[in-house]
Amino acid sequence: MNLAIFTESLPPNTDGVQKTMSFLADSLLEQDVNFKFFSPVKPESGYDWADRVRKVSSVPLALYKEYKIGVPYFDNLEYDLDFLNPDLVHIAAPSLMGLWALHYAKRNNIPVVSSYHTHWVHYFPYFGIGGLESYGWAFLKWFHSKCLKNYTPTPSAIAELEKHGIPNAELWQRGIELDKFSPRLRSTQLRQSIGADDKPILLFVGRLINHKDLDDLVVAHNMLKERYDYQIVIVGDGPMRQELEEKMPDAHYTGYLKGKPLYEWYASADLFVFPSTTETFGNVILESFASGIPAVGVAKGGVGDVINHGYDGFLAKPNDPVDFAVHIEKFLADSTLLKTLGRQGRETAKKYSWSAINSRLIDSYKSVIEGQQIKKPFIYSKAS
Asked: pLDDT (tens digit, 9 = 90+) per residue, 366-379?
């Protein structure tokens, strides 16, 4: 199998898409699948598959300057693709690069699949363009209807696509590295460094941006801080950082972290708090579970598919900071509950194996290719 993958996000980006694509690359190498990424970013040589990335010309994304949008029209990508001779094209986003890839595949009769990573249309109200949501969904329906499979991370995301008339949705979940995110990395020294050796630490990890619903966390914190002694740690960065530092000056802000420093903060916290309503999955929830800490999220989007309410965390009402605070308070008032649900979260994480998840995806790739081969007409030529 020869596979061409078009994605805007690979390392050194730090989002869920790059993580998903990185582990897919590892699985493809393990199963000896020939593949090439086409992306505006290229990882360092430390990755075993770094030489399989064709860098594409790009421009910064207007809303997030650290992200790049591929502009493939001047790079002669056809030469690389023709040399690869792909049996399948996988498009990770309906961007300019994704549209170019779709056109190339259709022009050359190559089957196309897509993956749905981000609820882009759900972001519209946060940027003052909520009135354009119907047009956004119409575009997504047009794009994804041209793909033979639309790989989606949670049942709720599949339901969302189906509600808007998008066909061929298939589950492609996310996994977790249990050897890296682990309760064994809990650090008393790290807790002491912020004066929290003897009080609970509430942890948030993610981009500091309005569509993570961080204002709800601020309101919940203001309700709880007068009654409970705890410390909030914010791992991540983004356009809301200065605003959050003004509204929650007592929180500890680390900026972006990766590797062992990130793993240690997860393991050294006591409760993960994540008010976002716009996730398709929520990798950070699995990371908290693997680290042995429970989570409070909201019953909307992919987070509601990952958290098992009452077993490894709680699900509050979406965009309801009062209810979010109520569920956090259950943990602050009961240290035994924290420990019990934290242990059970680790058991939940064990069910998400990247190897098994990506093996199912590769099998699906094969079925798409075989299905297209079967559909091609058999032409009998009588020998002269």
From this structure: 999 998 765 554 44
